[in-house]
């Protein structure tokens, strides 16, 4: 069964600190992996999209890594800001011609001053 | 602002009723996706349309149906509503319907069934 698991479920860090969120997946055959940021009650916003051949992708203070062999990905947030408080969702797409996405449950990040 | 619009923003209705949610994709996007997000739960893919035709189906109940019109806007119809259908419903769009296409999400419609 295609699944995406994220850890931790929730995380509290102080402003200015770094953090790393984890994503493990069993989706096959793998097409691409995305990280989304979702503020409470709002639509998700894409941070990165990585295909099989990409190991690392950055978007400002966000850096995603992908290990297709171990089926793991991480999202590293550098120098966190209060506005980083949100849910971060790992999403994996399987090959099949259609852009059907399988969502993880998300990690809820709270950045405190 | 993603460029995807959804109406209405909020909807409150009673059990057993039927509602229609509307989505307008970004200009130039041919594919539309519908997702459901229940309270404190992850997003669930419901259905995808590409240029007017159904492309993929996810966990969509038989009481739910959708369509994409010639002008590419889409509607999600929910009937015989139950309390458990209360959720945020998101629409997303992409240029095409496959591969590593960026999906842009709308602001969502919050449905409350009482």
Tell me about this structure.
The complex is a heterodimer of chains A (113) and B (114). Chain A has 113 residues and is mainly β. Chain A has strands at residues 4-7, 10-14, 19-25, 30-38, 45-51, 56-59, 62-67, 72-77, 86-94, 101-103, 107-112. In chain A, a hairpin with a 6-residue loop joins strand 4 (30-38) and strand 5 (45-51). Chain B has no helices and 11 strands. Chain B is mostly beta strands and 114 residues long. In chain B, the strands form 2 sheets. In chain B, strands 2, 4, 5, 6, 9, 10 and 11 form a 7-stranded mixed β-sheet that branches. In chain B, strands 1-3-8-7 form a 4-stranded antiparallel β-sheet, with no helix packed on it. The model of chain B has no long low-confidence stretch (mean pLDDT 93).
The run of helices and strands of chain A is EEEEEEEEEEE
What general outline of chain A do the C-alpha atoms trace?
globular
Form type of chain B: globular
Specify the number of helices of chain B. 0
What share of the residues of chain A does DSSP label as strand, in percent? over 45%
Question: How far apart, in Å, are the first and last alpha carbons of chain A?
Answer: 41 Å
